[in-house]
Structure formats: C-alpha cells, structure tokens
C-alpha cells in the first residue's frame, strides 16, 4: 500500500541474500585484466589447490593501481606481476632497480617476490619473419642497416623516454617513425603496411602473425621479469608450492599459452591445467559442455543482483529519509541535491578506484560506490515530490491531529510514492549498468566475463556479460512497472510520473 | 454557560501587519458561532488560533477550559473537527479511508470504523456506493460532505469550519446548510464557522463575532446583534441584501 511496505519487502530480500565475503582461511589469488595475468593467476591457483589449499580467485582486477593496493591491504594474497612495473609503481621512477633494492622496497610494504616464472615480458621490436630473413635482422642494432623499412610504433612507446626516444639514442638509429594504435599494429604488420613495430615479448599475436622479435643486444629495455608477488605473511607451505613454478615458463611457452587464449579462445583454467599436466596440445573447450557456462552465468547473475539489490535498498532508505529530513528547507534541499549531483559526475571507474584506499577491493567497496550512484535519482525525485505536495493537504493532515510521523507515513510518502518509485527505477537501471564495472575491483558479477572478454578481445565473452546485464535492466523496468501499477492508484500515476 | 473557546487579549502580527488586536472573546459551549468580516479582517487567523495552527504573540487562548498545550497538539486536535474551503481530501485514499483515517490510527476495530462511516455518510446524505471511490470521482458538493464526515468521525465536541461552503453553487450550498443544521439538531456541539457571507451567518448561526482589521467590532447572540447592529454590521448586512 505504501512506500514503507516496499522498503520492508526489499529489506527482506536483501536479508535473504547470502552475504558476500571471504571464505575463511583460503588463499586469495588475484590477477590483472589481461590474458597473460589470468593464465598465470590460474596456474598459481591450481598449483595451490593441488597442494591442498582452498583458493579464492579474484581475477581481472583493474590494472596495477587496483591490484597492488589490494595486495597491500591483504584483500588478495598473491598475484602475477612484472619487475619493471614494480619499479615504476613503488619507486615511481623509470629507473631499473636491481633485485636487492626491489626486495627491500617490497619488504617495506609487507610484500615479497615469491618466485620468478622464468620469462621476461619486456618491450620487444617485432618484424615479419621473411622481412627479417631478407634484411638479415636478428638484433636491434641490425636496424641501422634497414632504413628503407617502414617504422611505426604505438603512441605510448613513441612518447616514453624508455621507448623510441631512448632506443634511437642507444642504438644510433636515424630513421623516422610514425604512430599507430596498438590494436591495429599487428594487423598492419601482417598486411605489410608497416615493417617494424613495438610489441610485448610474450604477445600471443607474435606467434599468430609469424613475427620474430629482435634481440636487445645493447640491453636498452628494462627487465619485465614475470614474478609471483605475494604478501610476506603468506603461509610457508603456500610459498613452497608456488616456488615449484620457478623458471618453468619461458617466453615461448607463455606466448603459446597467450595465443591459445586470445586466438583459439581456450579457457584460462584449461590452459593452466594443460600446462601443469605438461600437455601443451590444444584442448577441447567444447567438450566441457554448456553446463559450467550456465552455472557461471547463474553465479555471475546472482552476484550482480546481490550488489545491485543491497546498494539499491540502502540507497532507497538513505535517500528517502534524507529527502524527508531536508525537503522543508529549500537551501538544505538544494545543498543535498548539489552534493549528490557532484557524486554522479565522478566517472564510475574513478569512483570505484577511489573506494580502494578506504574499503579495499571486492564486494564492499563496489556496493558503496553503487549506493552513492543510486542516491541522486531517488533523492531528487523524493525531494521534488515532497516539495510539490499541495500545502492544503499538509495543513489538513496537521489540523486533523496526525503526528509528524503519521503525516509522513500516511500522507506525504504515499503522495510522493509514484515519483519516488520512478527515481528508484532509474537508480536500479543505473546500478545494474554500473555494477558491470565492479568486476574491475574484484566484486565479480556480470562484469567478469566483460572484463575477461576485453582482455582477450573476445566479443562472444563480452556479450556473455553484456547481454544478461541488458536483459536484467529490462526485466527491472518491467518489475517496477508492475510494482507501480500495484502500489499506486491509477489516477495518481497519470499526472505524477515525472519526465 | 462555561465557554469552550476563550480568547484573552490575543494579539498576532505577521511582519508589519497586525492580524489580531487584543481579542477577548468567550464562545458558547453549544451552537454555531459565525465569525464574519471582509477579506483580511483576521477571521481565518482567529480560527487557526483555536486548534493551535497559529500561536498568539501575546495573550492566551483557552479551549476545553484550559490553555492550549502547544506540546501536545496532535492529541488536542483530534478532539476538534476541521473542514476548510479547499476541502483537502487525500487523493490517494478512498472516500471511506479519508473519513476513517484517524479512527484507524486510534485503534478502532474495522467493524466500528465501518459502522461509524456508514452513519456519517447517511447523515450527510451521501450514497454508500461512494465509499470505495477516490475523491476526484466526486462532485464538489459530495467532496465537501465527505470533508464534513471526516471532521465528524471522532465525534468532536468542537468543530472549526473555515469557509467550507465557498466556491459551491447556491443549490449545493443550501443542501449543505440543511445538513449542518440537521446535525446540530441531532447532536449539538460547538461549531465555529468562518464566513464572509452575512446571509449564511444569519441562516446558520446562533452567535455572531464581527471582525474588522483584526479587532472585534461586535459580538453576541444573533438576535442581540441584529437588534442593535454596529454601523459596520449594518453595512455588512446591507451589502449582503
């Protein structure tokens, strides 16, 4: 019948949902949102599972900033990282640091390098194999003899001091180079539009396009040794298990595994499993059948709903109470709406990142961010509806002897209900959309396949997250339409629905 | 006769305007008292002091033999029926729910509420079939009858009517006048009626209070006032002829 009873119903729904959090005593393995990091993460996770540990996977965390912060705060216990990246992140200079200095710096953060995997994912200079043969190219210094070739580098590489500028100086190269988008570089190389470009040493595409990388004979590029980075307090048995991976993955192996993921679309878990079983041959992804996929979809959807519903219910309660509290004062209303509007202008990914220092990673910060995003539409509609209620109705409610609480409960809220519901509906749709980004801070949900799909450039995988999210948004619209029809007398809807 | 409503030297200003000036009044415990005067004379301001919607700047308002307790207004106001010109029926509640709201909050049984609503609607000559309808489906006259039913629900010893018949056509108004007189016949109570219509006052009231620019010009029983009308009252009577 009224606003309060919907709130009550939603609260019950929220209470019935399982609370999200860590499983006790399990080791949390993280990864960044690109294929190589997922694969190394899986390899570590499966290694730990084989050693008898319970493992929780927090894969696809948004870039170094998020992942490193998560490790520091103990939200994750271990993840794959690169020494060069750490030098940048911790010592924030571009300087190449020696292993001892790096270990000391990490120690100060309560972290340690558990083991190197055995390959260096540094920058590399890539050319087609037949061009290399034709021009006798095997080392970067050979490029001084190949001025007729067409050089094009990614924009980042062109601008970095440890990129093209430094490389030119170090090798005495005199050619000019153009810029190209990273996504297009390999294709352009394969098509012969360009001849020389920058690459990462273990890119799966190097194998796919039959390219070769030139030897950095003057050791210009800093080392990007792949390592398992973990917390100093990680259990010794876990450290021992992970140390077993030391030096077992070389650049060629890694490149092949990356290609299986990004070119053949094999699941990370399967690639990792094949590697650990010593079976390098392509597996049969289809043999797994549809069942695990559906289960995964169900899990993602459930998590997505948990995030959305909890955030939304909290936002409804907060916004409606706040709206009731401030609506009598124009100045207060304006201030509150202004602040809520300000929150809305923070890009969602930035808001999520801002949550990390305060609440770590995972479900909690995601819910708080979604909560903040949902406030404005509900708050605005609540305040607007309350302000526009006929003053005569307020006067009558007061004069007939309703207490202030009864005035809110029996007159103000029911009259504001259609508008509040419309605000909740808007917030719900925003919430469902924004919740896909929560995967970047390890909260899971339907964003998980999207983030993974983006890492693999796999449209199918992206759609596995995007389509259910869109359907969920549409379903929400329908549910609210029904709810409105049930809760609000028809004559109040037609002339009260805002916008 | 002990007065239900008493004003002692009540003054009220809104900014620079003095809305009430040292009003002292005793209203009778039973019967209809009409408060008349032109627009801006302070009639409505006077009425709103009785149920504590407004608080005097100076002086004291006493109701039911005691000063108004501004710390316990809701309970106090439930003993005072209230109906206004705009009616102010709650659009999200049916006719029955509008009338029965207070009783339900007071914890009356469903059965008791329904019976009381039936009685009141019959008294106001409202078709019982209107009970489940929403206010916007009713005519203006029907809405005002529902408004009166709502004011009467808790059988208050005192009713405040703030121009409830304005804005209605003559026939509807006459019908409502009859209902009000019938009600008064059946269960007498104190009713304070604010009106700018002298003829309405003559038809309904047993007592008159005439206001001019925030002051009482003349007050007393209707026959007494009509026997020796103040020049301003004569003027009002003349204007309404």
| Count of distinct strands of chain A | 10
Quote the beta fraction of chain B.
Answer: 25-35%
How many individual helices of chain B? 9
Return Rg of chain B in Å.
18 Å
pLDDT under 50 segments of chain B (min length 5)? none
Secondary structure: helix percent of chain A: 55-70%
Q: What's the oligomerization state?
A: heterodimer
Helix fraction of chain B? 25-40%
Proportion of beta-strand residues of chain A: 5-15%
Mean pLDDT of chain B: 91
Q: Between the first and last Cα atoms of chain A, what is the distance in angstroms?
A: 24 Å
Sheet of most strands of chain B: 6 strands, mixed
Shape of chain A from CA axes? elongated
- Total E-strand runs of chain B: 10
One letter per element, helices H and strands E, the order of chain B comes to EEEHEEHEHHHEHEHEEHH
Number of helices of chain A: 22
Terminal residue distance of chain B: 33 Å
The greatest inter-chain interface is formed by: A-B, 22 and 25 residues
Spatial order of the strands forming the largest sheet of chain A: 3-10-4
Quick structural summary:
The complex is a heterodimer of chains A (499) and B (241). With 499 residues, chain A is mainly alpha-helical.
Walk me through the structure.
The complex is a heterodimer of chains A (499) and B (241). Chain A has helices at residues 3-16, 35-50, 63-72, 83-91, 99-108, 129-135, 155-159, 161-171, 182-190, 204-208, 236-243, 251-262, 268-276, 291-326, 330-345, 348-359, 363-387, 391-399, 404-434, 447-456, 459-487, 490-494, and strands at 27-30, 55-58, 78-82, 111-120, 123-128, 151-154, 177-180, 197-200, 211-214, 225-231. In chain A, 60% of the residues lie in helices and 10% in strands. In chain A, strands 3-10-4 form a 3-stranded antiparallel beta sheet, with helices on both faces. A 3-stranded antiparallel beta sheet of chain A has the order 8-5-9. In chain A, strands 1-2 form a two-stranded parallel sheet. In chain A, helix 14 packs across helix 17 and helix 19 (404-434) packs antiparallel against helix 21 (459-487). Chain A is mainly α and 499 residues long. With 241 residues, chain B is an alpha/beta fold. Helices cover 38% and strands 27% of the residues of chain B. Chain B is built from 9 helices and 10 strands. In chain B, strands 6-7-8-3-9-10 form a 6-stranded mixed beta sheet, with helices on both faces. In chain B, strands 2-1-4-5 form a 4-stranded antiparallel beta sheet. In chain B, helix 3 packs across helix 4 (110-123). Chain B is globular. The two termini of chain B are 33 Å apart. Chain A binds chain B through residues 390, 392-393, 395-403, 406, 410-411, 414-415, 417, 488-489, 491-492, and chain B through 51, 53, 73-78, 80, 82, 84, 86, 88, 90-93, 101-102, 105, 134, 136, 150-151, 160.
